[in-house]
Design goal:
8-stranded mixed sheet, 5-stranded antiparallel sheet, globular, AB_hydrolase_fold, Mycobacterial_A85_antigen
């Protein structure tokens, strides 16, 4: 399973390195140093310094966090913040970000503002080891996000659970009965197996002649089951059960594909890497798997509408980038694309691996492709990237009626936000021609 922190920090790196960024050189160095540390590269990243900066940015404001912890939190344990702008991996200096417990039972932590406008963070506690906060279910929670307001502020935080606290959640507890699992499905193009999770409409068994459109989705373990997710679930089964029953969503089959141990390699369409650590993309092989092995299996074993106009590909982050790439390059297979917070920033500037932007400007975009993209205000670069992609598509005369771009004013780079936007995306994709 993909290490969730690796994927998170790869995403965060783009905040400081993308063109036109307002991030300071100091913060760029911290991001680079953090990513090198989490990936255990032992060397510098391309375009990055290999050591952290020696000085800190000027403080211009502060935020005070008022923190409510679970009642079972040991009173002798320290509560502290881990963040992406300062000393994220240096546990010897955590006292700088340690909260103080007051008589009202809350913990308080004042964090001065360095010369950045936002940061990502989580809370942890120190017992015999560092123990991070998690969701109430006991699963990993997305990083928190704070946007400075330019003045002192107090923010209330509720920590739902700690990673060492027990939970009663079990496999399948949050899964609808019409979701089926296929374990150890062979992927000959990639030399491994995967698990599939397949959502069937509620009336699939009772209406024996109807055929349905199909959406293939990446990161399948995050779609239906809180237990199997590594960052929270999308709740797609609950959403579809409700919408289909209400008649507000056409019935559809969703095929979720679990990611593998090298998620980035399978989703990023071009070779990538860091100094001394080259990584080879196998995204084309992943597309071959869907086209040559998975789709024939689904079409043979389920009642599907198998044409391109009834077949979609969707995903988030790197998975969203993969969905864009698959739809643009294989429109005869995938007529619908759902790209949630796609990592279009992945662009090495190499003529051989130019990135999704150059792929769009090269032309040859299918006018039949239905393309949905989104981004949230709490992942600031995503908004700029969506606007850039819209401009490029408009320059290529991509039909406006085939394009939907959503800017979520409260959305972040997490499953909760993608889940909230999923019904909007799917309704539009499935009814764009009606």
């Amino acid at each position: 399973m993909q290490n969730s922190h690796s994927s998170t920090f790869i995403y965060k790196l783009q905040i400081s390195l993308k063109e036109g960024s307002s991030m300071t050189k100091i913060n760029k160095a911290w991001f680079c140093y953090a990513l090198a540390s989490v990936l255990s590269l032992g060397g510098a990243l391309v375009g990055c310094e290999s050591t952290p900066p020696a000085s800190q940015p000027e403080v211009i404001a502060s935020v005070t966090f008022k923190i409510k912890v679970p009642n079972s939190t040991p009173s002798e344990d320290e509560i502290f913040m881990i963040s992406d702008f300062d000393d994220f991996f240096n546990l010897d200096v955590i006292e700088k970000y340690t909260a103080t417990r007051e008589e009202d039972g809350f913990y308080y932590l004042e964090v001065p503002q360095p010369n950045v406008d936002h940061f990502y963070f989580l809370f942890a506690r120190r017992s015999d080891e560092r123990l991070k906060e998690v969701a109430e279910s006991g699963k990993l929670r997305p990083d928190r996000f704070y946007q400075y307001k330019g003045a002192d502020e107090q923010v209330e935080i509720t920590i739902e659970n700690w990673e060492d606290f027990p939970t009663d959640l079990k496999l399948g507890d949050t899964v609808s009965p019409n979701v089926h699992q296929v374990a150890d499905f062979n992927m000959p193009q990639l030399g491994r197996t995967t698990d599939l999770v397949i959502y069937l409409p509620p009336d699939y068994q009772s209406v024996s002649t109807q055929k349905y459109p199909v959406i293939y989705m990446t990161d399948g373990q995050n779609l239906f089951d809180e237990f199997t997710s590594f960052a929270g679930e999308w709740r797609i089964d609950e959403i579809l059960d409700k919408e289909i029953a209400a008649g507000t969503m056409p019935p559809v089959i969703i095929v979720g594909i679990y990611n593998g141990p090298k998620r980035a390699n399978e989703y990023i369409p071009w070779d990538f890497g860091f100094m001394g650590q080259p990584e080879q993309s196998v995204a084309d092989q992943f597309i071959d798997f869907i086209q040559e092995t998975l789709k024939p299996y689904i079409d043979s074993n389920y009642r599907t509408l198998s044409g391109a106009t009834s077949t979609g590909i969707a995903g988030s982050s790197f998975g969203g980038l993969f969905a864009l790439y698959a739809g643009i390059t294989q429109p005869d297979t995938f007529g619908m694309v759902g790209a949630f917070s796609p990592s279009v920033w992945v662009n090495l500037g190499d003529a051989k691996y130019p990135g999704i932007k150059e792929l769009v400007t090269a032309g040859d975009l299918s006018a039949q492709l239905r393309l949905y993209m989104d981004g949230g205000a709490e992942e600031p670069p995503a908004i700029d990237e969506m606007r850039m992609m819209k401009r490029l598509l408009n320059e290529q005369k991509f039909p406006e009626q085939q394009l939907m771009i959503v800017e979520d004013p409260t959305g972040g780079h997490n499953e909760r936000s993608w889940s909230a936007r999923f019904p909007v995306a799917l309704k539009w994709l499935l009814t764009a021609d009606s």
